Amino acid sequence: MMIEKLFKRVYPQQPAGLAIRPRKVDFGLDGAVPYNWYKESSVFLFLNAVTMLLPVGERFFINSVMYYKNRITEPVLQAQLSGFIAQEAAHGKQHELLNRLLLKDNPKLIVIEKIAKWLLDSGKLFPASFQLAITCALEHFTASFANILFENHAAFSRFSHPAVGELWAWHAVEELEHKAVCFDVYQAVAGGVLGYFERCLAMLVVTLMFSIAVSIGLFISIIFYKGPKNIVEHQGKRPDKVVKAENGNEWLWLAFNVVLRNIGYYLVYFRPFFHPWDCDNSHFVTAWKAAGSAGEVKNFEPEFDQQ
Question: Which phi and psi angles does 224 have, rounded to 5°?
Answer without folding.
Answer: -95, 5
